[in-house]
Amino acid sequence: MNMTNKPEDPLSRFSLSIFHINGLLMRSGDIITRSIDQSSARWQVLGRIGYKPQTVAKIARDMGHARQSVQRVADVLVNEGLASYKEHQTDRRTKLVELTPKGAEVLGAIYEQYAEWNRHLMAKLDPEQLDKIADALEHVGQILKKEVDFFKI
Prior knowledge:
Elements: H1 10-34, H2 40-51, H3 56-63, H4 67-79, E1 83-87, E2 95-99, H5 101-122, H6 127-151
Antiparallel strand pairs: 1-2
Helix pairs in contact: 2-4, 2-5, 3-4
């Protein structure tokens, strides 16, 4: 590290940039969902179960969050009627979280807000550059996943 406390090695710079962008994306998600009385955390869980019912553990693993934090969000969504728990067909010890019709309406409203936000941002961003960055991130993610799986972190 240099005297300005900024890391000089590429992996540290990369990691800090990703953390910063993630924070901004979460804040953007909160802005997008605020008028619908939701949050980016709720949107993430709704979005995951919008594709197919999933266990809390799988949602947490795929999102890189603690199972307990996803469980709390899922419980709130269930209490508000946006999601429900159903029996898992092959594992009686766990339940699947699935979207309710009310949850699908809320998720649709979030996606409408997101589409507007997306149009606003894309007027300022280069789509080709974003595609290249996404490809590079996917490549880094594949390498990290192999390492994490190897070391069982």
